[in-house]
Design goal:
The protein has 287 residues and is α/β, with parallel strands linked by helices. The chain contains twelve helices and ten strands. The protein binds D-glutamic acid (DGL). D-glutamic acid binds next to helix 3.
Length: 287
């Protein structure tokens, strides 16, 4: 078997992709990961496609040139929708994995055939999402909700001086957006399955469960994406099957923005020590 010790790059507009990183690390414990959070420019969901494409290309170029990544996981539904086609065209030799809201897996879970979808405005407005929705629309009824402000509030909830206000904002937005989608539950006509179409939303899963009750299934993409990455690397002979004696490989977490925020998120959600987090060079921080 061939072995490739180069790291896998993972990126998101901010801390949301940490939910995908967690699944990747579990699925691929022998691999090294370099995670880049573009916190300085989060949220992407309410910015133009042109801006998101520029950031995505700058980040991919940086991870290739400075960290010699062998694969890139775009752990952001919004950036995938805006930029994955261009990325594939620009880097035909790079193993590339994108994310899309889990509408198809949700079909396999819903009994009422009434499915809610929460995602950013950018994802919901994209052509890629329109095509995805069109491909499943005959099989169930989908309530699609653009959740302006939610990813930002989740970002802010990791900053000690903003955490309390951000938590209140999260509670308010979740209440507003779920109410706008309709009635949740398991009775006929109820929404029984909710797709978390933004990687940030995984971190408010508990709040959603409290709000919606135990009968509603929440569907995210971290685990399927981790399995897909594993298959892609295996097929391309890019896995690193090296011995780690059970210990996880070291990882690096980089941010274009607030280092304290990334440190707090990495500690809170992944149990990682602060020293794995660092700031990227200034050249990548600008818009
Ligand atoms: N976490 C991202 C996603 O999956 C983007 C959130 C944002 O920056 O608006 O869509």
């Amino acid at each position: 078997m061939t072995s490739d010790p180069r790291p896998i790059g993972v990126f998101d507009s901010g801390i949301g992709g940490l939910s995908v990183l967690q699944a990747l690390q579990k699925e691929l414990p022998h691999e090294r990961f370099v995670y880049l959070a573009d916190n300085a420019h989060a949220p992407y969901g309410e910015k133009s496609e042109t801006f998101i494409r520029e950031r995505t290309h700058a980040i991919a170029d940086y991870l290739l040139a400075q960290h010699h990544i062998k694969a890139l996981v775009v752990a952001c539904n919004t950036a995938t929708a805006a930029a994955i086609h261009e990325l594939r065209a620009r880097h035909p030799a790079l193993a590339l994995v994108g994310l899309e809201p889990a509408l198809k897996p949700a079909l396999g879970l819903s009994h009422t055939r009434h499915i809610g979808v929460m995602a950013t405005r950018g994802t919901v407005a994209s052509d890629k999402f329109a095509r995805l929705l069109a491909s499943v629309q005959s099989e169930a009824h989908f309530e699609v909700q653009a959740c302006n402000g939610l990813a930002l509030a989740i970002e802010q909830s990791t900053l000690p001086d903003q955490a309390e206000a951000a938590q209140a904002q999260i509670a308010h937005l979740l209440q507003t957006y779920t109410q706008a989608m309709g009635c949740f539950g398991s009775a006929p006509g109820d929404i029984d399955t909710l797709v978390l179409g933004c990687t940030h939303y995984v971190f408010v899963e508990n709040d959603l469960r409290q709000l919606l009750g135990p009968d509603v299934q929440l569907v995210s993409t971290g685990e399927p994406v981790a399995r897909q990455t594993q298959r892609l690397l295996a097929a391309a002979g890019l896995l690193n099957p090296g011995k780690t004696n059970g210990a996880a490989q070291p990882m690096r977490l980089l941010t274009t923005g607030d280092l304290q925020g990334l440190r707090a998120a990495a500690q809170r959600w992944l149990g990682l020590p602060p020293e794995v987090c660092e700031a990227v060079p200034a050249a990548l921080q600008g818009a």
